[in-house]
């Protein structure tokens, strides 16, 4: 796992984002410039793939890991997706994927 900056740790606490959710974004997310992201469309596809993998898997350990991943992915889906900004192996900040859509310009 990459190092968390003080700022990222503060933002995680303020926004209700867990360490495991960050790990899922880094594991399954797409990279664009200096950030990783998971949006709703990607999450739905990944969750479907996990369900298919669960149906095919017989190993108890793999089933447990997939179930844990599914739980976290569904939490991220409830948030609308996540963005994790990373630079030089340090996580700078994180926020909900669609948070930029809710901001209004008051000028």
From TrEMBL:
Pfam families: DUF4258 (PF14076). It comes from the Bacteria. This is DUF4258 domain-containing protein.
């Amino acid at each position: 796992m990459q190092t968390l900056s003080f700022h990222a740790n503060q933002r995680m606490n303020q926004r209700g984002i867990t360490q495991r959710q960050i790990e899922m974004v880094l594991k399954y997310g797409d990279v664009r410039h200096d950030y990783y992201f998971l949006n709703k469309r990607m999450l739905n596809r990944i969750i479907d793939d996990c369900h298919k993998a669960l149906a095919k898997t017989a190993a108890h350990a793999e089933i447990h890991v997939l179930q844990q991943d599914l739980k976290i992915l569904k939490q991220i889906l409830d948030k609308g997706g996540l963005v994790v900004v990373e630079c030089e192996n340090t996580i700078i900040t994180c926020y909900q994927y669609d948070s930029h859509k809710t901001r209004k310009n008051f000028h």
